[in-house]
Amino acid sequence: MRDKSIVNLICFFTFLVASCSDNSSVNQILTNNERKNALYTDLIWEEATPASVGIDPALIENAFAYALADETYTQAVIIIKDEKLIYEKYRDIAANELDSWNQEITSLLEYEEVILLAELQDAFINRDRYSLTTSWSTAKSFISILIGIAIDQGYIESVDESVSTYITEWSNDDRDQITIRNLLDMRSGLPPLCAGGYRPDNELETCVSPSSYGGDLVQVDNQLDACINRTIAETGVMQPWYQTWYVGEQTWEKGYLLYSNCDTQVLGELLFRVTGRNLQSYADINLFSKIGFEGYWWRDKEMNGQSNGNYLAYCCLDATARDFAKFGQLILNMGLWGDEQIVSSSYIEKIKNIIVDSVVEEDGSNYSYGLTFWTLDSVQQDDGTMFPSANKVHSAIGTDGQYVIIDFENNMVLVRNSLYYPMQFSSFDRKMIATGDLNTINYPLTLPFGWFGNYSSFKPSTFLYLVSKSLQQ
Fold first, then answer.
1. What pTM was computed for the model?
2. Do 441 and 423 form a contact (C-beta atoms < 8 A)?
3. In b/e form, how buried is each residue of 70-81, taking b as 16+ CB within 10 angstroms?
C-alpha cells in the first residue's frame, strides 16, 4: 500500500541512490537568464562541425537521437572531441515521460500535496545549456581530483597514507590500516550504512540487505558521524549487505570491492580537516575557479558540522552539463588547463591505470573501479558486437544516468545528464531534507529513478558505440 507521505514515496525510490562556500550567497539559485549574464564564460572550446574532426554528421545525429529518445529522461548530451565542442543538445520532458508524470500525480490526488506536485511539472521544461543538472555519485570523482590536488599542495603525503593520520578516531584500532586509496577504491572493509526506515528520527545503521547504490544516507540529518564510527566488518562469513549483490551466496573477504557512500563521505571530512576549508570553498579556490565551473554542493541538515552542515562528498553537486564536460576535459588533458597544471599528471595517470590496478575480480566481472572512477562494461550491442572493449573507457558515473565519459584513445569527452530539478521547498541553502511533508523537502530530484523508481532506457555503452561508428577512420 502506498505511504501517504509523498516525501516517503520519494525516499523509498531514492534511498538506494548513490556537496558551497563559507559565504551563503553562493548557494543562491540563478535563473537561466541570470546564468547567461554571469561574469564568466561557459564556452572554453572552439565550436566545430562534426566533419571537421572526422565525425560523420548523419551518424552522430543518430547517436544523439538515441540518447534523447522519449523514455530516456535525458536533459543534456554533449560531445567534445580534440578539444572542440562538436555537438550538444538539450530537451524538456518528453511526451511519454510527461504522461507517466501525470499518471503519478493523478494517483496522488487524495493528498493535499498534489498542488505542489502539479507545479513541479513546470520544472522540467525550457531546458538549455544554462539549466542546472546534478551529479549524484559523479561527485565522488570530484573528491578524487581534490584529493590529488591536496597531495600536490602537501596537505596529504600520498594515497597510500593511513586515513587515521587525519581521521584520528581510527588511530587506536584495526582501522589504522585503512589507506586513503582504500577509501577511494571502495575497499575499506567497512560496512555500508542505511537509514532505519522512513521516520523523522532516523539513525544510520549497518544495511541489512545488499546495498548496490552505496547505502542510504539521505534520510538522516547528520550523514557523516555514523560513517566515521563504523568498524571493520568480519570476514569469512556471509554478510547480508554483500552476499547477493555480486554472485549470490558468497562470504565477505578482505579487499573486496564494496561500493559505499560512507567511504567518500569520510574523504570529504578528511579534506576538511587537512585543508581547513569545506568542500565548496576548497573546490572553488583550487578547481572550480580554475576551469570556469559554477558548482553548488549540497550539505546535510546537521546544524554544526563542517559549515552549518556537512558537505555531501558522495553526491549532490549541481552544475551545468557544460561544466561537467569541463571536468572531463581536465582529466583528458592529464590535469592541465591552459598553461596551468591543476592536478598533477601523475595522479591522472593513476586514474588511467585503474584498468590494471583496480580490476574487479571477485565476481568475475570485466570492469574496473578505482580512485572513484569506473570503466564502462563491455555490452553486447544489437548487431552482436561486444562494446566497448573491457577496461578501456573511463567514466564518472551517478545514479539516474549521470555520466562524464573520458575516452583517452579517441580524445573525447561525452556527457549525459538526466532531467533535474532542485526541490528547495524549505530553503534555498541546499541543505538536504528528505523526510517530512512536501512543503519542507529539500532534495535533488532527478528522473526517472528519483521519482518513479524505474530506470531510463539510456545505455552509455550503446550511446558510445553509436558515437564510435560515426568516427571516420
1. 0.91
2. yes
3. eebbbbbbbbbb
